[in-house]
Amino acid sequence: MKSTVVGSFPCEESSPSNFKDKLLNTFGAYDSYKDAIKDSVIAQLDAGVDIVSDGQVRDDMVSIFTKFIPGMKLEDGNTVVVSKIRKPTWEISINDLNYAKKVIKEYYGGKIPEGKGIKGIITGPTTIIHSSRIQSFYKNKEDAIIDLAHSLKFEVDAIAKKVNPEYIQVDEPFLSTGMVDMKVAKEAIDILHEGLDVPLAMHVCGTLNNAFKDIAKFNVEILDMEFAGNDVNLDVLEKNANLISNKKIGFGCVDSSVNEVDDIEDIDSLVSKAIDIMGKDNLILDPDCGLKRAPKDVAFDKLKLMNQIKDKYN
User: Fold this and answer.
1) In this structure, what CATH number is given to the domain that contains residue 299?
2) What is the pTM (predicted TM-score) of this model?
3) Which domain holds residue 23?
4) Alpha-carbon span 4 to 9, nearest angstrom
5) Could you report the per-residue pLDDT of 21-39, keeping only the tens digit for each?
6) Would you call 236 helix, strand, or coil by DSSP?
7) Which among 262, 270, 274, 275 has a CA at the least distance from the CA of 304?
8) How far apart are alpha carbons 79 and 72 in whole angstroms?
């Protein structure tokens, strides 16, 4: 049984403090988020996390991608679809992921141990389109979702080739809302998965009693869901475990909606029940969602408790 994070971690944007950084800032080359990436990676590793993220320190989960995708633009912080969606103009997360991977390598003295590493994370095409406003070109969301899937495929393939992650995670929280055409959403994930030589995970938060049977059919190796803040989902998992016997479960066992440290007995009880349902080798422990809104010390302690439970059962 391994552990991971859903993605985001609390961070602070830094300011140039020495001559070199101030000079870089003068030429627009200073990266105010580089220290935040390093700090978040080290915090995750110190807490015992096996598969870390880069902390998702830049922007929100939608605009961090859409500002680099032709056909989409930002207006007052919101994404608007203004023309046909095309290939990204930039490999969006590669630099941050490779820098995070360098930090991991240094943390372990020059070589990343087997079973440890980083994962790439993208926001899924269905969630991005449902979070955006279509101004022109597309008559319906479904066509935009498919075009965006083809666009994001370039990013997914770049992560797989240039970062060599443990796996790639697609965040699709909208799949639990009942607002989504599941057939189109599944087709979009198929596009992202095609030819991929690393495992693909899909994170879906929310209550899944009405969506689980559809989600179970998606072409991914790992399904990541919340259980700590949603007691309905454990019952859903138990009743439908036979539908996902070929998948691993990202098991949200830490409540990310509460900015206080979880009760270790609550985490232990949840994980114990999940082991009974799925077997520990099919579980990857993580928080319900990202921890960006939590104070740093609370986020760290949540991850540390989660990994204490992981170590107990390993």
Assistant:
1) 3.20.20.210
2) 0.94
3) 2-313
4) 12
5) 666 566 565 577 899 999 9
6) helix
7) 262
8) 7
